Each structure stands twice: as C-alpha cells, then as structure tokens.
Give the backbone structure.
Amino acid sequence: MGRGRSIANRRSRWLGVFLNQWAYSVQTAFTRNLPFFHLKRVAVPVDQQIPTSTTADILTESATGGLGGSIMDYDYHTEYTQTWSIGIQHQLNPNLVVDAFYMGSRTVGADNSTIRNVPEPGPGPIAPRRPVPELTGIRAIRFDGYSTYHALTLKADRRFSDRLSFSTSYTLSRSVDDASSPGPTASIIGICS
C-alpha cells in the first residue's frame, strides 16, 4: 500500500448582489411611503350583507376602522450575500477516498419588518398614547437584517472492490439570522394596529 494523495481546493466569491426580494422592486416600495400610500380601514357591521360603499366612493369615506401607513426606512441598503468554501480530498488507498468540505455564507442588509407608531402601554383609548395619534400602526421595512451559515461535510467513498462499495457522508451545519420572514411580523398577536 503506497502513500495516499491529497487534493485541496478553495473558493471565495460573491454569490450575488440583489435588491430586496420581499418588496420585489425598491422603486415601487418607495412609492409605498407616506404620504403617497396609506392603509385605510372602513369597518362594516358583521350582519351587513351588502356593502354600502362602492369602488367610486370608498376612498372618500371616513376611515371608521383607522388610518395607517406603510413605509420603507430612510437608510435603505442593498442586500448582498458572500459565500466561501474550502475542501480537501484524500485518497487513503486505490479504492477509498475521504473528503472534508466547509462552506460558509453571510448576508448583510436583509430586509426586516417592524411596526412603528406603537402606543405606550396603559389604560384608556389607544390613539392618544401613540406618537402620531391620527394614525394607527405603521408597517415599516428596514434593512438591518443579517444571516450567517456554516456547514462542514465529511464524506467517504469506497469503489466496488471485494464485493463491497459504499458512499457515506455527514453534514453538520448552523444557520443564524434575524430576517427569515419579514411578513408575519406585522400580524403578531398583541401588537396594536
């Protein structure tokens, strides 16, 4: 049995520079800022079968359910991800090869969602306790999210010899982020809208 051979390789590259995937278009999302865009709720009784408002007049009716907004924070940043990897492969004998492979990535500037204009806790009506009492909750997109991913894969391959072959691998990975899903943040139970 001779000495084994090892091969190492490494890769480091930008996986991509891309715009906010949740809002799909940053230019469109900027038009969603106040005062250009607002959310208006017109409440109707539960037992009312036929709405009294029509498409022609619903925008001019009083906001009986509240008037809110949707904004993108002023400090917009383009979201980007970096990835890197390194691997080594070693041939133990003519029929057996083992691999160790590491891959990592980091995302910066991921979009998050939050609620602005949240009332201070306390008794009484909600509106007077808000920073801007004339509006309800304001859904805001901010660009301070991050994510990191690290993975180590160990693998062994044995070519068919003496009626035996196998390929086995094990991956240990960890992913940490604070921006997995920006949508549901606005509808968490307990946040006043």
